[in-house]
Amino acid sequence: MGVPLPLRLPALLALALIVLPVLGLFARIDPGRLPALLTSSTALTALELSVRTALTATVLALLLGGPLAVVLARSRFPGLRFVRGCVLLPLVLPPVVGGLALLYLLGRTGSLGGPLRDWFGLTLPYTTTAVVLAQTFVAMPFLVVSLEGALRAAGTEYERVSATLGAGPWLTFRRVTLPMLLPPLGSGLVLTFARALGEFGATITFAGSLRGTTRTLPLAIYTEAQADVDAAVAMSLLLVAIALLVILVARPKAVEGRA
Fold first, then answer.
1. Mind listing the pLDDT tens digit of every residue in the chain (259 residues)?
2. How far apart are alpha carbons 172 and 180 in whole angstroms?
3. 117 exposure class (CB count in 10 Å sphere: 0-12, 13-18, 19+)
4. What is the DSSP letter of 127?
5. Which sequence spans correspond to the domains of the chain?
6. 237, 223, 242, 245: which is closest to 33 by C-alpha?
7. Which stretches make up the ABC transmembrane type-1 domain (predicted)?
8. Any idea which fold 32-253 has?
9. What span, in angstroms and rounded, lies between the C-alpha atoms of 229 and 194?
10. Which of 40, 61, 130, 183 has its CA 20 to 30 A from that of 145?
C-alpha cells in the first residue's frame, strides 16, 4: 500500500527535525582535530567511567528488573496497575527529579542515607556508586517494559502445559519462560545500557561532576561546552555513534518488515 501524498511532507519535516541537528554537529567540527579530541585524557577518562558504570547499571537492572518484569506480567493482585505505573515513572519524570529523589533518600540526611552513614559509615552521594544508582533508576524501566511486553505477547499456554506435566514454578520458569525471554532480553539489555550511558540529569544531581569519579561522558560534554566547544562536539559525536550502533543492534527485525 502506497503512502498518501499529504503525509509525505510532514514525514520529511519530522525526519529533518531529527537528522539536521545531528548533521549540524558534523558541520561544526574540524575533521582533522577529531582524532586528537576523542583521544584526549578528558574524553577517554569520561568514556571509560561511562562504559564501566553503564555496564554495572545494566547488570543491576537485569538482576532486579528481570524478576520485576516477570512478577508484573504473571501476577494478579490489587493495585497491580498502580505498581506498574510506579515502575514506569522514571520514563516520564525529568531525570533531575529522579536525582533529587535519590539525593533526599540516600543523602547524608536522607531517610536511608542517614542510617547508612551512622551505622555503616557509607556515604553514597558524589561517588561512583551514586552514578550507578542514578543510571539504574532511569534505565531499568526500559528492561522491565521489554520483558513484560514479551511475556504478555507470548501468553501462558506453554507454561500451563508445563504445569500439567508436573513441573513446578521454578522449573517451568527455567525451562519454558526463560528461553522465550532471551531475544527480548538481549534487545532490552542493549537499550538499558544505552540509556544508562547517556544519563545526565539524575547523575549530576545525585553524583555531581567529579573528574574520574562521577564525570561521565554526558557530564564531560556539558562541562567542556563551556570551555572548549570543539571538544564537546567531538564527544557528542561519539555518543551519537554509540546510540546509532545500539539502535541497529537492538531494533527488532519485525519492525523493519523482515521476518
1. 577 878 888 999 999 998 888 888 888 887 778 888 888 888 899 999 999 999 999 999 999 999 999 888 888 888 888 988 899 899 888 989 999 999 999 988 888 988 988 888 888 999 999 999 999 999 999 999 988 888 887 776 767 777 776 777 777 777 777 787 788 888 889 889 999 999 999 999 999 999 989 999 999 999 988 888 888 999 999 888 888 887 777 665 444 444 4
2. 11
3. middle
4. S
5. 32-253
6. 237
7. 47-250
8. MetI-like fold (1.10.3720)
9. 24
10. 130
* Exposed e or buried b per residue across 129-162, where buried means at least 16 C-beta atoms within 10 angstroms of its C-beta: bbbbbbbbbbbbbbbbbbbbebbeebeeeebeeb
**H-helix or E-strand spanning residue 148:** helix 128-154
Residue type for position 26: F
Please give the grid coordinates belonging to residue 242.
554509540
* DSSP of 187-199: HHHHHHHHHHHT-
Q: Cβ contacts of residue 195 below 8 Å, gap of 6+? A: 135, 138, 139, 142
